[in-house]
Amino acid sequence: MSAAKENGLGRRDTGTLGKLMVLLDVVTHADGPMRFTDILALSDQPRGTLHRQLSHLVEEGLLEIDADGRYSSGLRLLDLASRSWARNEFRLIAEPHLRALQDLTGETVHLGVLRGSSIIYLDKFEGQQPVRMYSQIGNTSPVYCTGVGKAALSILPRERVAALVADLAFHQFTANTHTADTLLAEIEEIRKQGHAFDREEHEVGIRCVAAPIWSENLSLVGGVSVTGPAYRLTMERLSEWAAPIRKTAEQIREAMRIGLGPRR
Questions:
Q1: Does the pLDDT of residue 199 top 90, yes or no?
Q2: DSSP letters spanning 37-87
Q3: Which of 57, 122, 135, 177 could be disulfide-bonded to 62 (CB atoms 3.0-4.6 Å)?
Q4: 233: closest CA among 116, 48, 105, 138?
Q5: pTM
């Protein structure tokens, strides 16, 4: 598989805006600032075109360039993100239920939504235990190796799941990370149970239990999870929390139905 496909650069054919958004995705998801040559190596754009596109993003404050010519996220992106997060109705509706779940379990609670083949974390309530999670609001994780991701997939029609899985580039994060076949098999189990587990599939030593959340028209699909270190969160403990997780998800769905329903 090419580096361009792995990093998502050059996959969209949506005109100038789409190409700019791809550049934003690549630079903002990089582990650190990127040099022009690094971005060029992943791009199918001519050098001059890519330079103009990056210059436009810098001029608009969406990217920044340092003295060494390396590109990173701009402050305007942070401002837009903070405003979006503060005004997100779904997050605000879910907040009291997430707090209640965190009080019950004492562990870290996440709220995430499905976007493409990734889960974006909209909210997080840190656990009360000494060892805590390094996850951050706004971060993304692959859909195939996270509890929230698998729970979200279990809500989608089977043909949609099959198409999504066929397009995934499975990376073996741990010995427990799914392949396409094992993922599809587990999704069928999740459909029956109403909850999903992350059995150290994304990170060694981290487990979670999750339940799906969705709107009636599936315009919003995501989930809620309780996450913690494997030495503390045995599979027995996670199984005990499956019912409270499902109840929390049901409460959020009902609150969504009331709060996000048609305005009269």
A1: yes
A2: HHHHHH--S-HHHHHHHHHHHHHTTSEEE-TTSEEEE-HHHHHHHHHHHHH
A3: 57
A4: 105
A5: 0.69
